[in-house]
Amino acid sequence: MSQGANPGHATGGRPPFLGHGVGLRRDHFERVLSGPSRIDWFEAISENFMVAGGRPLDVLTRVRERYPIVLHGVSMSIGSTDPLDEGYLDRLRELARRFDPAWVSDHLCWTSIGGHHAHDLLPLPYTEEALAGVVARVARVQERLGRPIALENVSSYVAYRRSAMPEWEFLGEVARRSGCGILLDVNNIYVSARNHGFDPSAYLQGVPVDSVWQFHLAGHSDKGAYLLDTHDHPVADPVWDLYREAVRRFGAVSTLIEWDDRIPAFERLEAESERARALHEETLRAARKEAV
Amino acid sequence: MSAGAADLRRTQELFWTLITAPEGVRAAVEDLTRRGALAGGAIDAIFAGDARLPAAERLDVYANMYFYRLLECLGEDFPRVQAAVGGDRFHNLVTDYLLAHPSEQPSLRFLGRRLPRFLEAHALAREFPYLPDLARLDWARVEVFDAPDAVPLTRRALARLPEDRAGEARFTLIPAFELLPLEFDVVPIWRRLQEERPRENAGARPDDAVETSACASSTDSRSPEAAEPAGATEPLGPRSAPRRRTAVRVWRSGFVVYHRNISEEEARCLEMVRAGEGLARICQQIAAGRSVARATERVGRILQGWIDDGILADVALAGREAARKTPTGA
After folding, report:
1. CB contact, 8 Å: B105 with chain A?
2. What does the pLDDT average to over B213-230?
3. Is residue A6 part of a domain?
4. B86 or B2: which carries more pLDDT confidence?
5. Which positions in chain B touch A195 (Cβ < 8 Å)?
6. Eight-class DSSP state of B130
7. How far is residue B135's CA from residue B237's CA, in Å, rounded to a whole number?
8. What is the number of CB-based contacts under 8 A between chain A and chain B?
9. CB–CB of A158 and B59 under 8 A?
């Protein structure tokens, strides 16, 4: 495993560098538990393990015995105007207590309104009012969980006329004001940049360096008029380029490959993760050389 | 709530209304405008679009993702219902169901819990009268899949009961257990539909054991295309089935979910166990005025089946604990 200190950065509140991981998916349960892998850590979808018993919890228990894990949620709905779901937070806290994840993350978006859940990551308008609301809710969640959380930028397909700041500024402000970390999804930056016509490099430059705890990489689909974040392809070349740029800016950041549909053999996923590792190491080496 | 927060709430409510509208975003906008609930041009004033992709089409991306993700989830949780009615009818059923019962839980795991009851009053139940029962069986398997774990009671633990007090024995069932009283004999239909879907993994027992799994949240996103279930759209289920009361027990052993048709006698025994009745009382009830010795023998055989299948968690004598399961479950 390539765990270690976070070279090249003042670590500040950053959690440890875990190396290169992949999302833990049902299709790979047997393979992950059957022997060694080239994967350093796994990310588990929190909601899938908020159950009383059975195979999923057993698998996660055994995976946790061998690997560091991160709990990654999809339903916290941090940007909703509904009250926070206290029952959900209780279950998340219990899950975190049981599995001792390196950190807990969710998305900078809203997923529920009027007590109903969309099970989709819906975008926020980037306004001062929305910012104040999210910051207050992050503070409440962090207090409830007894730990800071990381929030991920989502892919989006529509924006709001009244947004008063770019997404990266909103994300950076949420982190700065609440003390939360940032899970920077490099593919989502690329997808949203194409869909809304902004410069993805400007996004990277606008995010505060020390707040970034983790990167996500995934594949997307080109639908012609827009890109769709499908997680059913290998990482696209322009996203690898953007990842290289992100590593140059943010340094050694734990990186995770997501692949959720048309899931390939575990070995294919390992190869994708190895590609990220090679690129990450090569970029850091080059950055060190430049610094000398 | 501040004016800004109230404004955000209205926007989120509108977003929800638009992406959950069954006819799509444009139809929903027209409907809201016609009813005076939305000013003309409001969508383009709130949401940013361009010539390449207007705002309504951008919202439609979300509408498609919403529906197809939930359709896929319900297809995973009700695979036999989906196979019975075929893809098109299942699609329409899910459309109707989501309008009546949008998701109320952060986890997709619970999305389908009202579907069996919903089907009772749905038009599909006229075409496929056994469908609510088939849905009950599919859903019971989901419930059992991730119910709490328990170490099953062993024969050895049972043998430790003092023989002269065996009649006082009261059993506890494992949590991963459901008893379904049904109006139709859906187990053979379920099995036939299972055979039509050979890619699913059959469990160790030939007749009724099939590995199952509850619907899990995918991570960040899925495309409508990827989420759209492949497979036959033709209905594979029979259009009629004789109405015949049956009882099915559904349970989990290890991590494999099983179900089995059981006799009316066994169903009564299970109900009495759940009501906390002792073994002697169960035997008397089963005898129903006839030979208690023969009833005891029959109950003994039923009990043997429960031990073999691992559906008993514990046994205690009236008034005090006894003969608990061995710690190893050996």
Report:
1. yes
2. 48
3. no
4. B86
5. 53, 58
6. T
7. 13
8. 205
9. yes
Question: What CATH number should be reported for the domain holding residue A33?
Answer: 3.20.20.150
A1 found inside a domain:
no
Q: Predicted confidence band at B204 (pLDDT cuts at 50, 70, 90)?
A: very low
In a domain, A78, yes or no: yes
> Which tokens sit at B168?
């006082």
Stretch among A170-179, A268-277, B16-25, B226-235 having the lowest mean pLDDT: B226-235
The token pair that represents A193 in the structure block: 């940049």
User: Alpha-carbon distance B103 to B70, whole Å?
Assistant: 9
User: Cβ contacts (< 8 Å) between A23 and chain B: which residues?
Assistant: 219
* Positions in chain A short of pLDDT 50: 1-12
Which residue shows structure tokens 């190895």?
Answer: A274
Q: Is the minimum CB–CB distance between B19 and chain A shorter than 8 Å?
A: yes
Number of H helices, E strands in chain B: 14, 7
Amino acid identity, residue B25? V
β-pairing, A181-185 vs A149-152, is parallel
Task: Determine contact, residues A270/A38, Cβ cutoff 8 Å.
Answer: yes
The predicted structure's pLDDT at residue B150: 97
- At a CB cut-off of 8 Å and minimum separation 6, what does B229 contact? B71, B72, B75, B82, B87
Do B61 and A228 count as a contact with CB atoms less than 8 A apart? yes
C-alpha B308: how far from its chain's center? 25
Averaged pLDDT, B136-150: 98
Per-residue pLDDT band for B214 (boundaries 50, 70, 90) equals low
According to the model, what pLDDT value does residue B213 have? 62
In a domain, A15, yes or no: no
What spatial distance separates the first Cα and last Cα of chain A, rounded to whole Å?
27
* Structure-block tokens of residue A214: 């983790």
CA pair distance B319, A3, nearest whole angstrom: 56
Model pLDDT for residues A135-178, shown as the tens digit of each residue:
999 999 999 999 999 999 999 999 999 999 999 999 999 999 99
**Ranges of H-type helices in chain A:** 29-34, 55-66, 86-99, 128-145, 167-178, 186-196, 200-206, 237-250, 266-291
C-alpha to C-alpha distance for A229 and B13, rounded to whole angstroms = 24
CA-to-CA distance for A284 and B293, rounded, in angstroms? Answer: 81
B 267-286 → A contacts, CB under 8 A: none
pLDDT tens-digit series, residues B47-99: 999 999 999 999 999 999 999 999 999 999 999 999 999 999 999 999 999 99
User: Per the structure block, which two tokens stand in for B70?
Assistant: 């939930």
How far does the CA of residue A34 sit from the closest CA of chain B (Å)? 17
Complex ipTM tops 0.85? yes
pTM, two decimal places: 0.91
- Nearest by CB: B8 against A130, A232, A260: A130
Residue B125 has pLDDT above 60, yes or no: yes
Residue in B with minimal Cα distance to A197: B50
Region B145-173: what's the mean pLDDT?
A: 93
Range of the domain at A63: 20-291
Nearest CA distance, B173 vs chain A (angstrom): 16
Number of domains in chain A: 1
* Nearest-angstrom CA–CA distance, B138 and B125: 16
DSSP of A101-122: -S-EEEESSEEEETTEEEEEEE
Return the residue matching tokens 């005891």: B296
CB contacts, 8 Å: B20 with chain A = 118
